Amino acid sequence: CTSEMLHSSDKRVYLPLRGFADSLNLSVATALVVHQLFTLDPTLIGSMSDNERMNIRRKWYTKLASQRLLSKSGKTKRKRLLSKINALSKLERRQLTMTEPNKQQHGQGPLRKDELERLKDLDSLKEQLQQMDDDIQQKSLLAVEELVNNPPEPLGDMRRADEHRTTFAGKNTKKHNGEAWADMPATGYYKTDHSISASFFRDRLKEKEKEKGAM
């Protein structure tokens, strides 16, 4: 934890540790703090307003949908755009800090002619990325709006069912160890829940765009 974070904090909390543990990861520490807050003030439980709940659902449903609506080629294109932007941004920073002391200290001279030419594309690439992100954001909002207003029921049993216990072992690896893994649920080939799949959100988007076009 940096001194800047400590000085900016409203309150510092210490979680006593026992045994051999010398630290807790963020999720565990957060869970302990939140649990203690609910113990100290039970009125905090479920005190979130309907508007707050809806805003959080809209934010996270949209994020979930955007990750699935973007096609494989779209993800590749976005990754390449980011890579180009990052490379050109480094050139831009180098150009802005090209003072005489910096040249002598880092052994860097002014940008070459070809680097200056490439730098001209930076604004255009940023605009392409912004347009791409804005487009997927609008489509995601359209696809999930009904879910925001009418969210699906939460899981009644949060324990992981056997059909969800899948491994990341490849098909050939599972086949090779088939006899030894015969009774392990993780080796089964279970179908992905359609309600969280890419096809689910793409189908919803097509349906909403069709409804919008019919108006």
Please describe what this structure looks like.
By secondary structure, this protein is an all-alpha fold. The chain is 61% helix and 0% strand. The protein has helices at residues 3-8, 26-40, 50-69, 72-96, 100-106, 113-119, 122-149, 171-176, 198-214. It starts with a helix and ends with a helix. The mean pLDDT is 81.
What's the SSE blueprint?
Layout: H1 3-8, H2 26-40, H3 50-69, H4 72-96, H5 100-106, H6 113-119, H7 122-149, H8 171-176, H9 198-214
Q: What are the main properties of this structure?
A:
single chain, 215 residues, mainly alpha, 61% helix, extended
Give a brief outline of the structure.
This protein is mostly helical and 215 residues long.
Q: How would you sum up the major sheet?
A: none
Rounded to an integer in angstroms, the radius of gyration calculated over CA atoms is: 25 Å
Tell me the structural class.
mainly alpha
Kindly state the mean pLDDT as a whole number? 81
Total helical elements: 9
Morphology: extended
